[in-house]
Amino acid sequence: MKNVLTIYFAALKVLIVSSLVCITLLIFLNVVLRYGFNSGLFFSEEISRLAFVWLVFAGAQLMLHENGHIGVDMLTSRVSPMVAKYMLVITQLLMLYVTWLFLLGSWKQTLINLHVGAPSTGVSMALFYGAGLVFSVLSASLIATQLIDNLRKPAGSYRPQRSDEEAHVLSSTETGVLK
Q: Can the keyword Transferase be found in this entry's annotation (predicted)?
């Protein structure tokens, strides 16, 4: 199972890099064609927008997996490990609920726009809203897995991964207060 997840998140990284390269090349080529040759690519804005939407959702999925999102531990660092664990469980349950709401909204928008084509390419607009569907389903499964792992571990065993630089910054500060 770990190999499948490793391959999946490596594929996400490839998708993110590919999207960035695609956006950069399309916009650069369009600018050169417009100013240099008084023409342009009619589809570059739509394809760039589509690549950006998928890039954002893939990046959000990757950061959710790597715990790279912004976290504020001002309160949880001052409570007992058991209370901190329950706070994390509540947070993960709220994340699951919001992901469910996002899934419902994305589903409705995908169905509404299934037969609506983009103005210049004619690509179904459901492809834009489908990114939210994919993100919601995969994120919900990831959050649920993290929730189950959190419930199985004893209180106080959760430690987010930190780089050496972050550890240095943390060691030079008091809990919640900068020196």
A: no
Q: From CA 9, how far away is CA 66, in angstroms rounded?
A: 10
40 vs 57: CA distance, rounded Å: 28
Q: What is the pLDDT of residues 126-159, one digit of tens each?
A: 988 999 999 999 999 999 998 998 888 887 665 5
105 alpha-carbon distance from chain centroid: 17
Residues in the chain: 179
**How many separate helices (H) and strands (E) can be counted in the chain?**
5, 0
21-61: pLDDT as tens digits? 999 999 999 989 888 888 888 888 889 999 999 999 999 99
Can you name the residues that pair with 127 across neighbouring β-strands? none
Q: Encoding tokens for residue 33?
A: 């064609």
Burial letters 153-166, b for 16+ CB under 10 A, else e: eeeeebeeeeeeee
For 37, residues 6+ apart whose C-beta sits below 8 A from its C-beta are none
